[in-house]
Amino acid sequence: MGPAVHNPVDLASTLRHSADMGQAQGFDHEVRDNGDVVITHHGQVATILRGRRAAEFLEEVGADPQLTMARWTGNYKHGNERTAKDHPRNRRGR
């Protein structure tokens, strides 16, 4: 067999699709008049940040807003979900 030939359009599409997988999505935030920051995920309140934590969040949110909000709410994948699912402690009731 000869070397594999890749269609550049299909390869670009595949790379773009794989880059989108695992991206945080659906987050939004609102700054209230009193300085509180309300972070929502798909329209549901995920957390409310107040005081110093709200100020720290607002300084950090500019770079990658979706990922930043996912980290601050704890709503992101850690990469160990499959391992944790198979741990004996988590096997109860199976």
- Mean pLDDT over the full residue set: 74
Strand content: 15-25%
Point out poorly predicted stretches: 5-21
Trace the largest sheet across and list its strands: 1-2-3
What is the distance, rounded to the nearest whole angstrom, between the alpha carbons of the first and last residues?
47 Å
Biggest β-sheet strands, sense, barrel: 3 strands, antiparallel
What Rg is obtained from the alpha carbons, in whole angstroms?
A: 20 Å
List strands and helices in order, with pairings.
Layout: H1 8-20, E1 27-31, E2 37-41, E3 44-49, H2 51-60, H3 65-73, H4 81-86
Antiparallel strand pairs: 1-2, 2-3
Describe the structure.
With 94 residues, the protein is of the alpha+beta class. The chain has a domain at 24-74. The protein has helices at residues 8-20, 51-60, 65-73, 81-86; strands spanning 27-31, 37-41, 44-49. Strands 1-2-3 form a 3-stranded antiparallel sheet. Strand 1 and strand 2 (37-41) form a beta hairpin. The longest helix is centred in the N-terminal third of the chain and has 13 residues, at 8-20. It is elongated. Mean pLDDT is 74; it is low at 5-21.
Spell out the key features of this protein.
40% helix; three-stranded antiparallel sheet; single chain; alpha+beta; elongated; 4 helices
